[in-house]
Amino acid sequence: MIGVWGYGERKNFATFQITLYLSLGALIALVGLIALYLAVPRPNQVPAGATFAGPPPGAVPITNAPPIIGGIYSLSVTQGQTYIWTKGTNDHALANGSLALLDSRPFVAATNFVLILGKTNAPVTALVQPPRTFDIPTITAAVRKTPLPLASQKFIFPLLLFGFGILVSLWPFHTWAPLGYGSAPTATAMLHAGVLKKFGLYGLIRIAIPLLPEGAKPWLHVLAWLCLGNILYCGWVAMRQRDLNLLIGNSSVAHMGFAFLGIASLSLIGITGTVLVMIAHGFLAALTFGLSGYLRQQLGTLEIGEMGGLLKKLPFIGTLLVMAMFAGCGLPGFANFPGELLVMFGAWKGLSNFVMVLAWGALIVGAIYALRAVRNILHGPLPERWAGVADAAGWWRKLPFALLLVCLLGFGVYPQMLVTKVEPGVAKVLKGEEIKPLPTGKRLPWLPVPMKKN
């Protein structure tokens, strides 16, 4: 979509970058997921009540069968006749004297396979095992019962970390995001930055951390330092941007640093904050890219140096832009504030003080580029060329922006709406990692307590 409907002279390069980085991230994550899939132990090697028996009466052993199809290889070859695990039934069939088939009961139907070497008189062992699955609750239960070996965890976790991390624009694999968002159509930037980018964070929280806890621990401090690259480096780059979309894109990548920081804390309060940051960033990214798209439609450019004094002509859009920039600074009253605050408290407990000082300093960088953008775009003299621009007219144009702002304000003023829903789920994911949920009825001290009904 960027290559066809995008903007700017570098849209083709942005398309190439996004394709390269996201394909690489997806490939690494896929390798990690396949490795996890193969490493998870099966519930039982042999089904309960199974008996070890030879082929049924009248069946021809596979070792005496004619060749079926060349190129089909066996996974287990032993000397002697073929034996199979069966569920104690006489319901066997023989297909052309070549295959001893298992019965069609549910278990056997799910696990029925015969391994054929494709060569006459080749001794083969057919094994029946419970099927593997990609179902997350089933895998979680299996891993809780029989944890994966430490070597497997240390091998698989970095694959998932960097695979999912690239999809979320983890520094230094982030360069596809700012230019991609700056060149993308408005709807594409809103959807990708606001929604699709969160899938990688979900994968880390839902899959990598709970299933590979011991493999994660050696990488948490590495992740903490990498996320400082998001927070500090991308914030610094945002300060130097002259294009509004590039500024918003770098700001978006910087905010993902706080999400990674909460994951690196491996604490209930920190990861709860990460989920809140994910939700708040979704609303904020959609709002800011939507506003920049409106300005592009009216002005034909997003060069900050060519703007100025637009608050006089665009009071509604200008006010929303000011509030969106304040929300990006982590100002209290907006949804970003409680999420970043919880992340900071969680990281303060689990990470070094030096990391925390740098993370707090990044808030100053965010305030600088946000306030500078507000000053250069909305204040000062209005250039004559913008005398004909029009503000958003009609409720149908104002409603989408207003809804996004209401969500930012609502979850910022009363974040307990999210905390009460998110915290139990995070506690369940982290169960067994020496992280206990808050006692029933106990609330975080800095969050408001709802009024009781009479």
Number of domains: 2
The rough form would be described as globular
Number of strands: 4
Q: Beta-sheet strand percentage?
A: under 5%
Low-pLDDT sequence parts = 45-129, 432-454
- C-alpha Rg, in Å? 29 Å
* Main sheet specs: 2 strands, antiparallel
Oligomer: single chain
| Widest sheet: strand ordering | 1-2
The H/E string reads: HHEEEEHHHHHHHHHHHHHH
Helix and strand content put the structural class at mainly alpha
How large is the count of helical segments? 16
Task: Give the proportion of residues in helices.
Answer: 55-70%
Write structural notes for this entry.
This protein has 454 residues and is mainly α. It folds into two domains: 2-35 and 137-429, no CATH class; 44-131, no CATH class. The protein is built from 16 helices and four strands. It has helices at 2-5, 11-39, 106-111, 136-145, 150-167, 176-183, 186-196, 198-211, 213-239, 244-265, 268-299, 315-328, 336-350, 353-378, 395-413, 416-429, and strands at residues 51-53, 84-86, 93-95, 99-101. The strands form two sheets. It has a two-stranded antiparallel sheet. The chain has a two-stranded antiparallel sheet with strand order 3-4. Helix 10 packs antiparallel against helix 14. The chain is globular. Residues 45-129 and 432-454 have low confidence and may be disordered.
Short description:
59% of the residues lie in helices and 3% in strands.
Entry keywords:
2 domains; disordered C terminus; mainly alpha; two-stranded antiparallel ribbon
List the helices and strands and how they pair.
Layout: H1 2-5, H2 11-39, E1 51-53, E2 84-86, E3 93-95, E4 99-101, H3 106-111, H4 136-145, H5 150-167, H6 176-183, H7 186-196, H8 198-211, H9 213-239, H10 244-265, H11 268-299, H12 315-328, H13 336-350, H14 353-378, H15 395-413, H16 416-429
Antiparallel strand pairs: 1-2, 3-4
